[in-house]
Design brief:
Length: about 70
């Protein structure tokens, strides 16, 4: 009957937010990496669970920061 079809769940919203953050990581300029890392850490704490996409985004940003700092 589709009574609950149009209702979104918390899980879907979290998934959408994780995808948005991953897109943001891919398009982020090097001067904005620190603020993006803080944003990702806040999202990880807010979710309270282990979101693999957020953890991947954090690893990507951290490695880009390390790469940027190693060239100095």
């Amino acid at each position: 009957m589709g009574l609950f079809k149009n209702q979104s769940t918390h899980k879907n919203k979290t998934n959408d937010r994780s995808k948005d953050i991953l897109k943001e990581v891919n398009h982020c300029k090097s001067e904005n990496l620190e603020s993006l890392l803080q944003k990702i850490e806040v999202e990880i704490e807010k979710n309270g669970k282990k979101d693999k996409k957020l953890l991947s985004a954090k690893a990507m940003v951290t490695s880009r920061i390390a790469l940027k700092n190693s060239s100095k």
